[in-house]
Please model this.
Amino acid sequence: MARALVNVPKVAQQGEVVEIKAMIAHPMETGYRIGPNGSNIPRDIIRRFACTYNGEAVFSADLFPAVSANPFIAFSLVATTSGTIDFTWTDDAGKTQTASATITVN
Amino acid sequence: MHEDPLRIYAGLVGRRQFLRAGMTALLAISLPRWAVARPSLEEAIRTFTGGANVLDGRVRLDLPPLVENGNAVGIAVVAESPMTEDDHVRRIAVFNEKNPEANVAVFHLGPRSGRAMVSTRIRLATSQVVVAVAEMSDGSFWSSRASAIVTLAACIEDLS
Model:
């Protein structure tokens, strides 16, 4: 669908709170803008963002047209065990884009 | 006898009524779709809380007071919470006062978040108030509001 960018620290201490940043290239067309032909440009937004840590849902977000183009979300997680953190973005058409990162917990 | 079909119609509806209906239809067409449909800020918050009382405090919404570009306004919401299994922030929602839609985003958190903090970038159509509401695990709601002056608005830029 689009290019996604995630930022997860490579190494963390057990129990440390780490900051996660996720961004995806997407126009987030609101559906309220008027196109050159005078009719509304159809809405096309990322509706949902979800994050799982070793398969367990830890964070998610419902997005609305008021979120800027190329939606950027920063949040935090507790580093519990080494593993992968997966990110999923879902758009209006139901298409999904995923990204993942690995974290090593000492 | 031959009757004009238009006259029959006019006689049935009445001229004034016919004019009034026409004016209403015209007004409905000329207004943008969102101008009639949008719920107010308070209504949107009530929908989110399910009618529960919203208290001030425990939440901080960071919003720049003067925004040059309404297309990308960085906001951060921090809630005071130990983020343990028994006491954590369940959801953080952001609402606006004057955009075409009242909702901005809803974030779902949990004890594994470690810290009740989210940040993102939003659109602001005009100078207005933005409200952040946090739902705690005990079912209470806390809010914080901030206002911003927007010099270049989102949503109205020309497409060229």
